[in-house]
Amino acid sequence: MQKLILSVITVFVVIATVIAFSSSQNIKDTNQPTPIPDDDSVTVDTTIKETPEVVFATPKKAAHFVKSSPEHGTTVIAAPQQVQISFNFDLGVNSNIAVTRDGKDYSTGNTIVSSDRLVLSKGLQSDVPNGLYTVSYTACWPDGSCHDGSFQFAVNR
Amino acid sequence: MNRKTVLLGATGFLLIGLTAFYLWYERKIEPKRETVTTPHFETSTPEDGVVLAGVPLNVTLDFNLDLVSGSSILIMQEGIDYGSSSTEIDENKLSMRRRLVSNAPNGNYTIKYRACWINNNCANGQYFFSIDRSLADSFTDYRSQDEVVIDMRTLAFLPEKMRIARGTKVTWKNSDTVNHYVNTDAHPSHTYHLNQNSRELPPGAEYTVVFDERGIYPYHCSAHASTMIGSLLVE
Predict the structure, then answer these.
(1) Chain B contacts of A22, Cβ < 8 Å?
(2) A46-50, A97-101, B28-32, B51-55: which range is least confident on average?
(3) Which is nearest to A148 in space by CA: A133, A157, A132, A137?
(4) Which of B28, B74, B224, B228 should one mutate to test binding to chain A, selecting the residue with the greatest count of A CBs within 10 A?
(5) pLDDT at residue A4, as a whole number
(6) Which residue of B13, B88, B221 is the best one to mutate when testing the A interface, meaning the one whose CB has the most A CBs within 10 A?
(7) Is B156 helix (H, G, I), strand (E, B) or coil?
(8) For a pLDDT cut of 90, what percent of chain B falls above it?
(9) Helical spans, DSSP H, in chain B
(10) CB contact under 8 A, A64 and B222
(11) In what order do the strands lie in the sheet containing B183-184?
C-alpha cells in the first residue's frame, strides 16, 4: 500500500513537472487571426541604399509629416534653392530646419512657416559642394511641444 | 526505507509539483505584464496602463518610420483576441490600427504588436490597458439629447466627460479668449479617431462632429495638450 501511494505521488509530480517545463516553451494564443512570431530579436537596418556611391540613413518622420522637397534618398544634379517640408497640422513657433554636411550647416536665413502653418521651408546656399546632406527638422505644435525628424539627399553635379 | 522519510520525501515532491502547476497556470492565463516598446514607436491610443470607462474604437499605434505589410496587432484577454478586423496601416504609413469588438468585456488587456519596416525589419512590442464600465457613472449623462454643446472655457472642456447616445451631434464652442483645438488622441499624432480633428478655433468658433459608433473617444486641445483634455462615451 505504501509503495502504491508513493508511486501515485511520483507519477503526479512527474506529470506536473513536465507541464511546468512545457510552459517555458512558446505559448501560442488561441483564436489568433494574425499570429505574431515569437522572434523578439531586433535587427534594424539603418541604411537605405539608393546608389552604390551613396548610403542614406534611415529617415525619421515627425507626426503629421506629408512630404519633403527634396525627397529622402534622392540625388540631385543641382542644389535646391530651398528645402521644404509639408505637414497636415498647424505648426507652431520655434519650428526649425537645418541642412548639414559633415557637421556644417549649409542653410541660409530663417526657417519660414507658411501662412497656412502647414509648410516649413529654409533656403540653401547656392554653392554647396557635392555630397550627402542631412535635413534635420524640429516640428513644433501649438502647445509648444516639438518633435524632430530627419531625412537625407545627395548633391552630385 | 524509514516510513517517515518516505512520507517526508513524498510531501516535498508533492509541494514541488503543485508549485510547478501553479506557475504554469499563471503564465498561461496571465502573461508577464512588462511593457516592451519597439524602435520607432511614438505613441499609442489607448495609452499604456490607462483604465477606460468603455470599449475603445480601436488600438492605434504611431511610429516615426513608414510601416510595411506584416505589421500586426493582437488585443488579448485571457487568451482571447478581441480584435474585430485585420490590422490596417494608415495612408501616412506612420500608424497602424485594429478595431475592437464593441462588446469586449471589462478587464485587463494585453496589446501585442509586431511593427515591420523596410527590408522586412520587424520588432515585437506589448503594453496594457483595462476596461471598467463602472467608471461611466462619472460621466455627465446627455444620452437623452440628440445635440449637445461642449464649451471651451477657462482652458477646459465643459463638461470634461460626457456620456451620449449613438448618433448625437456634438458641437464644441470656443467661449474662451484664446485659441483652442479639438483633436483626437494621441498628441501630436491625432490618429485615434481621424474624423475628430479641428484646425485652430479662435474665440467664438465652433466645431461639430456626429458620433455614430459606440465606444470611448479621448481627445485634447493641441494648444493646451497636457491639461485641456476630454472624453466622450458613446453608447
Answers:
(1) 24
(2) A46-50
(3) A137
(4) B74
(5) 73
(6) B13
(7) strand
(8) 85
(9) 3-29
(10) no
(11) B140-141, B161-164, B229-234, B215-220, B183-184
Place of cell 497636457: B226
Could you give the C-alpha distances from B9 to A11, A13, A43, in angstroms and in order? Answer: 14, 12, 49
Confidence (pLDDT) at A73: 96
Is residue B186 a contact partner of residue B43, using CB atoms and an 8 Å limit?
Answer: yes
* Residues in chain A, overall count: 157
Q: What percent of chain A has pLDDT over 70?
A: 72
Residue B63 has pLDDT above 60, yes or no: yes
Pairwise CB contact (< 8 Å): A27 & B27: yes
Q: Residue A143 and residue B87: Cβ atoms within 8 Å?
A: no
Cβ atoms A57, A109 nearer than 8 A = no
Q: How many percent of chain B have pLDDT more than 70?
A: 95
* Residue B114 near residue A36 (C-beta atoms within 8 A): yes
A132: β partners: A154
Return d(Cα B94, Cα B66) in angstroms, integer.
5
End-to-end CA distance of chain B: 70
Give the SS3 label for residue B96.
strand
**B90: nearest CA in chain A?**
A64
Which ipTM score applies to this complex? 0.83
Mean pLDDT (chain A) is 82
Give the pLDDT confidence score for residue B18 in this predicted structure: 84
CB contact under 8 A, B13 and A66: no
How far is B215 from B235, CA to CA, in rounded Å? 7
Q: Which pTM does this prediction carry?
A: 0.80
